[in-house]
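Expect chain and fold; see below:
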Amino acid sequence: MRIEKARLLELLSQWSRAVQSPRPPSEEERQAGRQLYSLLITPLGRPDFDLWIMPSGELWDLPFETLIDPAGRYLVESSACAYLGPSEALQLVSDPAPASGDWVGAGNPRLPGTLEELAQIKRLFSGGEVVRDWPSLQSAATHARYLHLATHSQARPDRPLDSFLELAGEQISLEKIYTMNLYPGSLVVLSSCGGAVAQTHREPDLVSLSSGFRSCGAASVVAALWPVEDQATAKFFPSFYRELLAGRSRQQALRQAKLQMLSQPGLSHPYFWGAFTLLGDPR
């Protein structure tokens, strides 16, 4: 199916406005979500299987799981999605890393909701620990299968190496992140205020916070396409980890956490769950 780029960008803009605000979408915006489904998903038939998506250009900014099928359901209700660049696709020819290692979290005392989020998740892991500063994070990350960063982040598209995470009042630049030695096969979760741009990846070689973590050893990264309220992430991520501990793949665990949000009154709007995307190895 062919479509003019200007029309595609218009649909993407309309649907982005709809999902990035908790207000009810207009009929025009819902129609954009349906048209994008028709353009991008319908050619696959009825997708009741996992989708590994290699976007290009502005499609990196689209949460495919939020698209609306002809029956009025979100794509997440039938399929799990993961997003791959060329380098991530090549990883899939090798076996996944062994399921071992610890959970390590880092938070920001100035964001009380993140500390509650970390406390809930830590209780799920017998060997979990929470660190508060950069030296502790560097050390703990070497044995963390799951590295959960619930703190403020800021992207600098004009100077990407100055993008940063904040820990204990210190700005941890992307340049510092590139020096980390992460546990093989690890998953990094960027559950951060302002984490939207941490994930944006419009070209395969774009420098971003997520690409920084993948470059120093992470097999996959969960990050947000737009800022999500602390209260929502505090509900979302404990569900995600419970699904991982139950044996689900990273891709399916993320989908199940989204479905749980979708079933909760007040949290069913894509604004609360659609931002979280999985980059890299979905296994």
Summary: The first strand starts at residue 51 and ends at 53. The CA atoms of residues 52 and 82 lie 5 Å apart. Confidence is low (pLDDT under 50) at residues 195-201.
